[in-house]
Design a protein that fits this description.
3-stranded antiparallel β-sheet, mainly beta, 65% strand
Length: 79
């Protein structure tokens, strides 16, 4: 797979749980984004390697969050 790119939307429907989203590129550069309770975040990405979501309570302990992730990603398969 080559050059995955497009848009990512994270929707946090939790009332008290924040989400920490880490977006990593193929170059291993990454960006951390905090998505507050009852909010969302959209990013336009290129050369995507991974998306990780960590749920955190106000005390920074890992807990269960609710929400969704929408991906509109385009890529080229190499044979």
């Amino acid at each position: 797979m080559k050059n995955p790119s497009g848009t990512i939307t994270i929707i946090n429907t939790s009332n008290s749980c924040a989400m920490q989203v880490t977006i990593t590129k193929l170059s291993n550069d990454h960006e951390d984004i905090d998505v507050a309770p009852n909010s969302s975040f959209t990013a336009i990405v290129a050369n995507l390697k991974s998306v990780k979501i960590l749920c955190k309570s106000q005390s920074n302990n890992d807990i269960y969050c609710t929400g969704s992730m929408e991906l509109d990603i385009h890529y080229t398969l190499m044979f």
